[in-house]
Write a structure and sequence with these properties.
- This protein has about 100 residues and is of the alpha+beta class.
- The chain contains 4 helices and 4 strands, in the order E-H-E-E-H-H-E-H.
- The protein has a 4-stranded antiparallel sheet with strand order 2-3-1-4.
- The radius of gyration is 14 Å and the shape is globular.
Length: about 100
């Protein structure tokens, strides 16, 4: 499983537009092959921070996601609207819930 976390700082004058773009991107991404989850959230400790949490079946699915033209358009729009560059981290992991929870 591939886990992706990221965030972007919301500019006050673009806040509603950026939140809408994030929600649209997550909804579209959930329809892609290999997407297990894709959500955006407002950080409760910093309401000007839009956080993304994604789960993908494998790197092939992530690469396909990054190749979707709408994904590149989304990133470009967020970069243009935010006062800071977006941050993204990609992790390879294993779901060990059952091992820990019995």
């Amino acid at each position: 499983m591939i886990l992706i976390t990221g965030h972007v700082i919301l500019a006050p004058e673009h806040r509603e537009r950026m939140i809408a773009l994030g929600a649209e991107h997550s909804a579209r991404s959930r329809g892609e092959a290999g997407c297990l989850a894709h959500n955006c959230h407002i950080d409760v400790e910093n309401p000007d921070r839009l956080v993304f949490v994604e789960e993908w079946a494998d790197m092939a699915a992530v690469r396909a996601h990054f190749a979707v033209p709408a994904s590149a358009v989304f990133v470009a729009k967020m970069r243009a609207l935010s006062p800071q560059p977006p941050v993204m981290r990609i992790f390879s992991g294993e779901d060990i819930t059952a091992k820990l929870m019995g």
